[in-house]
Design goal:
This protein is mainly alpha-helical. The protein is built from 4 helices and 2 strands; from the N terminus they run H-H-H-H-E-E. Helices cover 53% and strands 7% of the residues. The chain has a two-stranded antiparallel ribbon. The chain is flat, with a radius of gyration of 34 Å.
Length: 159
């Protein structure tokens, strides 16, 4: 018996990946690492300040930041209340518009005769297939119905 030499996974041989894919994914990976580090920057700055690197203190402008935070919180509150009010008004108007109105009706069932005209099959076969619980349907390459075979459904035997 000869043993087949196993091919190494592509992840073990990056040289098998096209150069354009390698460069593209490297750029994307670098960008996301930069974003991740940028998100940690405030904590890194705080840790540096706590460890005695006082130059980090110049990045903290407490009074200005508190004033800006209050202004933004007020603005965000106005936006949240406005959007919430619009959604609430829309919901109330839809409720008043459609309350106790039954606009939808169920579709009329299709008779075996109508199905037989559409499919070109016997209405008796279609009526028999409609009574089955499990059926395998066959279609042509255009999606037209060709025929069907009944499948026997086995009852689960309780243990």
């Amino acid at each position: 018996m000869s043993e087949k030499k196993k091919k190494p996974l592509i992840i073990d041989q990056p040289s098998l990946v096209p150069m354009s894919s390698r460069i593209g994914w490297s750029v994307i990976t670098t960008a996301f690492w930069a974003i991740w580090l940028y998100l940690w920057l405030p904590l890194i700055t705080l840790a540096a300040w706590g460890l005695g690197f006082y130059q980090a203190h110049t990045y903290f402008q407490w009074e200005y930041q508190v004033t800006e935070l209050k202004r933004l919180m007020g603005l965000y509150s106005i936006v949240v209340v406005a959007l919430g009010s619009i959604l609430l008004l829309w919901a109330v108007s839809e409720y008043l518009r459609f309350h106790n109105k039954h606009r939808r009706s169920s579709a009329e069932p299709v008779s075996p005769k109508e199905l037989s005209l559409k499919c070109g099959l016997s209405p008796l076969d279609i009526a028999a297939w409609q009574k089955l619980r499990c059926l395998i349907a066959y279609h042509d390459e255009n999606g037209g119905f060709i025929g069907a075979d009944p499948v026997e459904v086995r009852q689960a035997v309780p243990a």
